[in-house]
Amino acid sequence: MDWRGLEKKGLLEIVRKEPFSMTTSIEAMLAKAKGELLIDINEVLEIIPKGFQPDLIAVDSITAIASAFGKKEDGYRIFIEQLFRYFETLTITSFFISETEQMPTIYSSSGIEEFLADGVIVFYAIKQGNVRENALEVLKLRGAKHQKKIVAMQITDRGIEVYPEQEVFGKIGE
């Protein structure tokens, strides 16, 4: 992807926010907005630059944001719910990226993310011996039918190619 060219054309904005420096603003915002159903997260955090109206936004990673909250799990849960709701009001597609173990049983730090999300797609880099195989699983996709299994995939010059009939390492996680 020619992301620099897209930035120059005004079609892409990359905004970097440090999770640990965000938490002070987030905690102040949450304290001020106690009891309100929806707060203007963008006003405090300036997630979306003024004048830019995205069709899609990716947050990488919610794991880093959760760790910035430390032991203040309640504050994180309220914030992440507000963030989901804020993006819903903008009617944009949002991707929240979370890091997990190789074969996770829990997909996010609090569990609220999977509940709020319309879809959960898990990407794997499964290691068996000295070989890694890329795979994906559609764990949840609200309102759509999908295969309930881990399938092989590759990232190529053409994008993500999925091979639903290709066997992924036998006996994964056993």
Based on CA inertia axes, which overall geometry fits? globular
What is the number of E strands?
A: 6
**Low-pLDDT ranges:** none
Enumerate how many helices there are, as a single number.
Answer: 6
What structural class do you assign from the helix and strand content?
alpha+beta
Strand order of the largest sheet: 3-4-5-6
Radius of gyration over C-alpha positions, nearest whole angstrom: 18 Å
Overall domain count: 2
Helical content class: 25-40%
What's the N-to-C terminus distance? 38 Å
- H/E element sequence: HHHEHHEHEEEE
- What fraction strand? 15-25%
How would you state the average pLDDT, rounded?
A: 80
The major sheet is characterized as:
4 strands, antiparallel
Describe the structure.
The chain is of the alpha+beta class and 174 residues long. It folds into two domains: 104 residues, no CATH class; 57 residues, no CATH class. The protein is 32% helix and 24% strand. Strands 3-4-5-6 form a four-stranded antiparallel beta sheet, with no helix packed on it. It is globular.
Key attributes of the depicted protein:
single chain, 174 residues, alpha+beta, 4-stranded antiparallel β-sheet, two-stranded parallel sheet, 6 helices, 32% helix, 24% strand, globular
Provide a compact summary of the structure.
By secondary structure, this protein is α+β, with helices and mostly antiparallel strands. It is built from 6 helices and 6 strands.
